[in-house]
Amino acid sequence: MPKAEIDRRTLLRGALATGSMFGLDALFTTERTDAAAVGPNDKIKVTKIETFVLKNSWVFVKISTDAGIVGWGEMLKDDAKACAAGAMEVGRYLIGQDPNRVTFHWQAIHRGSFYRGGPIKTAIISGIDQALWDIKGKVYGVPVYKLLGGPTRDRIRVYGQVSSTTGVNAMKVGPSAARQAFKYIEGQKFVDEVAERFKALRERMGSGVDIGIDFHGAVQPPTAGLLIKALEPYHPWFYEEVVQPLNVDVMAELAKKTHIPLATGERIFTKWGFREILEKRAALILQPDICYAGGITELKIIAGMAEAYYSPIAPHNPQGPVSLAASLQLAASIPNFLIQERGDAEHSNLLAKPLPPVKNGHRELPTEPGLGITIDEDKLRAQVGEPAEYKLRQDPDDGSVIDW
């Protein structure tokens, strides 16, 4: 074959195979940190999609390419099997496509069916979107946030377990009492107990620790109204999901009754869902979930919408390492980022190498290409199994179903 006909990918694959990296700097101006022999101008296509449902209900999607680059995404942990099956269905469209057309594929998956949206469909898009961005970052040899216009900050504040070792000084708790708030209107005894327990926590932690209160949508509106007033004197950082998000008007009414910021978003998806929250001022802090609300592509748009309302983004994250890694890429690329939930969780049991440690309550910006992590597939496959069963909670007094 004439020398002129040897394309860059063939040249690089030969170099990688022999261990000789002759003249790579002459071929790329960016630092190459991914072993796949492909550059931004080379053709690449998706060859395979795989999904993994873990025993703890985490759901992962892996997208492979003909260049040897793979991308990882994570999806909604509820309805785990449905999400995994849905991603495999999307494979019929995605296999053979150029993975670098991330936004095009987002639109194609979203608009490619008559019935659009919904938590499962959007979770499927979210996982695939993360995996495609992971691939694209590796193709370009840079972290995803550098392809999104970032960085907008030097480090990322996190919250979770307050610790003098890690410097984490922000946390979140539920309304603490001897039992869950399951009555439509709780009595004074219950409300006082919640307030007294939070007061004791505030005194123990001091004013230097930010403490949010997550109602988790399990408190009925009349009780929520009582609690937000009773807790105000102890300066909660925010009230999260004070009620179920299905009726935004109810949330907006409660928001007007307190000076404490309301936060919501973990059960809201796409730009269209968050538009109503912003327009009605139902919450000041938005908490979209990158595994559920539409992936990196959509959360970047949601953050832009929120900026116009002076609302910050605090990404929701109760899940695994891909969820955290993708959320950190978003945090690094938007101006109105507030804090990352469970950003202090290492998830090292599924990673080939641990994430950099949390220092002074922050994570340093990722430096590896793509999402910046490598999944240990042996450890991942060892945890594949039947997801957690549905949870049922009942009022102990009359047996009726309650929220959880």
Globally, the shape reads globular
- The amount of beta strand, in percent, is 5-15%
CATH class group of the largest domain? Alpha Beta
Number of domains: 2
Low-confidence stretches: 1-6, 10-35
Based on secondary structure, the structural category is: alpha/beta
Helix content: 25-40%
State the end-to-end distance. 66 Å
> Could you give a short account of the major beta sheet?
5 strands, parallel
CATH architectural arrangement of the largest domain: Alpha-Beta Barrel
By DSSP, the count of extended strands is 11
Radius of gyration: 23 Å
* Element pattern in H and E: HHEEEHHHHEEHEHEHEHEHHEEH
Q: Mean pLDDT, nearest integer?
A: 90
Any idea of the CATH topology of the largest domain? TIM Barrel
What would CATH call the homologous superfamily of the largest domain?
Enolase-like C-terminal domain
Provide a count of the helices.
Answer: 13
Spatial arrangement of strands, main beta sheet: 5-6-7-8-9
